[in-house]
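USER: Please consider what follows.
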Amino acid sequence: MAASRIELMQQMPIFGAIAADTVEFMLTAARVIEMPCGDYFFREGEPGHGMFVLEAGSVTVSKSWQSHELLIRRLVQGDCFGEMALLDLFPRSASVRADADCIAIELTSANLYRLFERDVEQFALIQMNIAREMSRRLRITDDLLFRARMGEVPQAHEKLAR
């Protein structure tokens, strides 16, 4: 297992304080996905099966609104996306498109379940970290919504070129 891949994971908030052997254990069952520029990792409304850790490349997260794609955020190496699929059973809430050729590590619920069977403490820590990351993003979204309601147009809602 490449030490650089383990280090990348450990630098992320979701895998902060997770032991290297635990990260390595999770990576042994994880798929590595190569996504060409312009292709979608997933589209809004599709079933969610796991999260992705962006090892190389960049992506755009967007939502559809009245036949337009609206930018939510751009993500780069070391960022993750799709983690909501590990906690809820709802369809994808946004689309994620590769802005460049990408390499991503896919972690599924099955990966987490294997970890649960092996080390419930490390499993719980990852779950708490996912919840913290989602809470951080929710706070940002709440602030953007509040500012929009007050008449300020947040820059995060740029229209994407089709």
Notes: Strands lie at 31-35, 40-42, 50-56, 58-65, 68-76, 80-81, 95-98, 102-108. The mean pLDDT is 89. The helical segments are 3-10, 20-29, 109-118, 120-149. The CA atoms of residues 61 and 96 lie 5 Å apart.
